[in-house]
Structure formats: C-alpha cells, structure tokens
Amino acid sequence: MKTPPRLPAPRQVAPRSAAPRLGSPRPVAAAAPAPVAPGAGAGTSTRIHFGRVFKVESTSYFLLLGTTLFLVVFGLIMVLSSSSVDSYLENTGFFGTVLRQGGFALIGVPVMLMISHLPLKFWQRVAWPMLIVACLMQCLVVFTPLGYEIAGNTNWLSIAGVQFQPSEAIKLALVVWLGVILSQKQNKLDDWRHVYIPVFGVGGGAVMLVLIGGDLGTVMIMAGILFGALFFAGVRLRMLAFPLAVGAVLALLMAVTSSNRMTRILSFMGAGCEELDGPISAACWQPLHGTWALASGGVFGVGLGNSKAKWSWLPAADNDYIFAIIGEELGLIGAVVVLFMFILLAFAFLRIMRTTTSMQARVSTAAVLVWLIGQAFVNIGVVLGVFPVLGVPLPLVSAGGTALLTTLGAIGIVLSFTRGDRSNTARSNTDRSNTSLRAASSGDDQ
C-alpha cells in the first residue's frame, strides 16, 4: 500500500500593513501607561481646561482686549476722582459712584470674555429676538409711566428703583442684526428694496422709538451705526444720499421744535454766554466751565484728584464732561493719551475687519467701530466746543452702568469674531494637512 505524497504546508503571508517598508522608521511599541496617583487625574483635567481659557489667540484679539481693559481701568480711576465730591454730597460717601461703576465693570468684563467664546451661528439665531426684546423695552419707556425723564430726555426705564437705558440695548441689538441681515443680502445690495425696506424699515423704526423719547444725541449715534454698516457692507453712496437727507431734515425738525434743544444750540452759538450781557445763562454754564477746566490743566495738569471744577462747578463731571476733568487733572498729556487709546481701538477694529472672511463679522465690527469711535468723537467734540451739548458719554470711561455693560458686550461680540476666524483657519489648515497625508499614503500604496 502506497503512502500518499505529503503536500507542502501553505506559506504564511504577513499582512501588508505589518511588513516594514524599506527606509521607513521601525515601529515603536507603545509604552505602558504610567500609574496615576489618587487624585492626580482631577488636577490634570483642571490644568487642561484652565489652559484653554488662556490659549494663544491672534494679535488682533489681544490688541482689542488690552486696549479695552486699559480704558476700563483708566475710567474707574477718573470716575473716582471726578465723582468724589458729588457722591459725598449725595450721602453715598466719597466712593459711592466709583463702587457702583466698579460693580458694573466686575460684571461686564467676565461677560465680555464669555461672549467672546460664542460662535458666529449663535448671533445668527439671536439677532431678531435681541432686537425685538430691546424695542419692547424702549416701548415701555415712551408709552408707559415706567419711562423716566432726565434733562428733558425720556430715555430711562425705572423698575423697582433700578434705572437703565433700553436705547443702549437697541444699539447692541442693531450691531448683531445688521451683520446678519446684510450678510444674507450681500448679493442684492444693488437693489434699493433690499436696503431700504429691512435696514431703514426695521432698523429705522427702532431708532424712531428712541427719537420719540427725545434723546437726539443717542439717535445720532444710532443713525451712524446704520449708515456705517451699510457703507462698509459695500452699498453705493448714491443709495445712501436720500435716507441721509431725510434723516438730516428730521433731526433739524426735532431740534427747532424743542425749547431745550434750541437753548443748547443758541448757547453753542454764544447767545447769553458773555458776562457783559448779564448773568451767564444756565445753558452756557456747563460748556463754559468745561472749557475753563481744560484750559486750567495746561500741559501737565494740576494733578490727579486736584480738580477744582468737580467741586460743584461742572455738572456731569463724571459722565458727559469727564474729558474736561481728564484735561484739567492730567493736562494735555493725559488728554492725548486718551485720544491715542481710542485711535488704537479704531485700529484694532479695522484690522479685524480687514482679516475676517465673514461678511457678517465685517459688518458687525464696522457697526461697533462707528458706535464707539463716533460716540467718543462726539463726546470730546462737545467738551472742546466743536458741537453743542448732546449728552452722550465717553465710551468705557464715563460713569454709567448700562452704557458700560452694552459697550463691553459689543466688544465681546467682536472678540468672538476673531476667535471664530482663527478656529476656522486652524480647521482648514488641519483639513489640508490631512488631505496631503492621505494623498501621500495612497501614492505609497500604489
């Protein structure tokens, strides 16, 4: 009986991925995980999350954040100096006003940093609700007894002893809403219907609610926000000429039909402001003493805290006329430093607008730029006698809780745009790297 022949054993073929390639690095065995001491995991997790808050951001982010924080701290110092006398006379102590302002700053700065982490899509979802809620609050001011009048302007809402300005919330809502609306219509901005109906129909209606309350200074800033957003969105100037003319006529009518505003305009023109004509009128008192405070400061100032105008000579020394106290106590040098910081703030906004890839981010940043820099220009111009008294504060510096919170909120929105662009850039770079790696791997396999 023959023995059947033995067949050769099948050859074992190693998997393709297991065989090392010529010239490729030898695989390294994974190291065994090191033992973790009890409680060490929680500390590591805490360090990781804490580091994410301070991760490296763009230079535009730190430029805007640093300038903002400097102006806030500088504003608290000047509010303390300019308000100490009036606070004492109001039985709140020398530190009453600055403690209140500092409380708003302690709330506003963390809120600004929290807002800076919100994505772009979040603002798209909340744009309309923000504008509607802000307009409803302004309706309570002008159409209900809850509205509170100060210096002839009904622009404050008083609820349970707490006063705040809904018009400041409308500014913030317009910043977000304009960015969303104009980005949705960026391919239709040559058609006047897609510009006039939403922007001047809805946005102009929100401005009219503030105009009914009589605050012409705030209305001018809000109108600047509308036109500034349209200009930086790329709307042609000839399309802006007609609404600009209509707005100028409305502002003129509101001025001539109000005795309070006409008195301010006449005092700006010098009527009743000369001692030779008799006693100085009440409307001339504030601009004259503001000019005298600036003039007495000279180049180096009289020293921080040594102002004479704040001793009940200059009304609104810690608010609308705080720049006069800055010029008196810190002199020309201090005034120039403040001007330089606002120029630096404008440069940060322009840099963010130039580098962003989103139409929404660019328009909203432009609206914040016109709001803050335009308002600072108007406030300083009033103190210098370039404009009549309009009653707008110096952003981030003047006393005022609502204005400080909304201003920090607007800057937080712009900061969120810088973080969003940076994350999108990093994501696109990662995607390109992964694509290159996949292409190289497929080439090696072939």
TrEMBL record:
Keywords: Cell cycle, Cell division, Cell membrane, Cell shape, Cell wall biogenesis/degradation, Glycosyltransferase, Membrane, Peptidoglycan synthesis, Transferase, Transmembrane, Transmembrane helix. The keyword Transmembrane applies. It is found in: Cell membrane. Its EC number is 2.4.99.28. The keyword Ion transport does not apply. The chain crosses the membrane at residues 61-81, 93-115, 127-148, 168-183, 195-212, 218-235, 240-259, 330-353, 365-390, 396-417. It is an enzyme of class 2 (transferase). It catalyses: [GlcNAc-(1->4)-Mur2Ac(oyl-L-Ala-gamma-D-Glu-L-Lys-D-Ala-D-Ala)](n)-di-trans,octa-cis-undecaprenyl diphosphate + beta-D-GlcNAc-(1->4)-Mur2Ac(oyl-L-Ala-gamma-D-Glu-L-Lys-D-Ala-D-Ala)-di-trans,octa-cis-undecaprenyl diphosphate = [GlcNAc-(1->4)-Mur2Ac(oyl-L-Ala-gamma-D-Glu-L-Lys-D-Ala-D-Ala)](n+1)-di-trans,octa-cis-undecaprenyl diphosphate + di-trans,octa-cis-undecaprenyl diphosphate + H(+). Its main location: membrane. Residues 425-439 have a biased composition (Polar residues). Peptidoglycan polymerase that is essential for cell division. Belongs to the SEDS family. FtsW subfamily. This is Probable peptidoglycan glycosyltransferase FtsW. It comes from Cryobacterium breve. The gene is ftsW.
